[in-house]
Write a structure and sequence with these properties.
Layout: H1 4-10, H2 20-31, H3 33-43, H4 48-61, H5 66-70, H6 74-80, H7 87-105, H8 117-124, H9 132-143, H10 153-162, H11 171-180, H12 191-204
Helix pairs in contact: 2-3, 3-4, 3-9, 4-6, 6-7, 8-9
Bound molecules: iron/sulfur cluster.
Iron/sulfur cluster binds at residues 158, 161-162, 205-206, 211-213, 216, 218-219, 222, 224-225.
């Protein structure tokens, strides 16, 4: 479990936090589930800066709604989001997702807010090209971070190194084990911030190539730092 001291130490990762205008923009995106879904598709396999560029490019050319995007010219759409990388795949995916939402959900996503976490995830996983991680980004905006902890490559790596799970662990096991180390009651109201800062630690200190264990606040509770892994 993360101690008070560890949580305080996480504050130093604020220097990597989004700039104010980026955060304001993201809060706006989060208010509309379809916008968040498209933003999350654009974020697959790319940096937050490139995601933002691709999203801005998309907004310039299209109204971000399922009805508009299902009819989009694939080439034009692909060009609009080029800055985000994998633009051809993502353009096809955005069109297919929009089509699915219009044809099966009447063009709406707000009904998902009334569903339990499990039901909402089950429905989201039916969308073309949507996996656990993308589904959880949406679910976390509905249910909050305690119930829908997003596990990406950085979270997976740190969970393995800390000894919380083994190399073959599935998404949901990693999610559960990582979730157990957060003192949710103590960080009530700050869940998103603390989880975000932890993710930044995973990305920058527990980085893929050369983890900086000597300066890591988690060293006392980490298997790798204690040579158990
Ligand atoms: S102590 Fe090292 S391996 Fe463990 S979480 Fe920190 S950086 Fe990663």
């Amino acid at each position: 479990m993360l101690t008070e001291e560890m949580i305080n130490e996480l504050q130093k990762y604020k220097k990597y936090w989004w700039k104010e205008d980026e955060e304001t923009e993201y809060k706006e995106i989060k208010k509309e589930p379809f916008h968040l879904l498209i933003f999350t598709v654009l974020s697959q396999n790319t940096s937050s800066q490139n995601t933002r560029k691709a999203y801005i490019g998309l907004k310039k050319k299209f109204q971000i709604s399922p009805h508009e995007l299902m009819e989009a010219d694939e080439k034009v759409l692909s060009e609009a989001i080029k800055a985000g990388g994998l633009h051809k795949i993502k353009a096809r995916r955005i069109i297919d997702i929009s089509k699915y939402i219009v044809e099966n959900w009447n063009g709406k996503l707000d009904w998902l807010f009334k569903k339990s976490k499990e039901e909402a995830r089950k429905e989201l996983l039916k969308l073309p090209g949507i996996g656990n991680k993308t589904a959880d980004v949406i679910i976390s905006s509905i249910h909050g971070y305690k119930e829908a902890f997003v596990v990406d490559t950085h979270m997976r790596r740190i969970a393995i190194r800390m000894g919380l799970v083994d190399e073959n662990a599935e998404y949901e096991e990693i999610q559960k084990k990582l979730s157990n180390i957060f003192p949710w009651k103590k960080i009530k109201g700050r869940e998103e911030e603390i989880v975000g800062l932890f993710w930044l630690l995973a990305k920058y200190t527990c980085n893929a190539i050369k983890p900086r264990c000597k300066e890591c606040v988690l060293a006392s509770i980490c298997n790798r730092a204690n040579n158990k892994r």
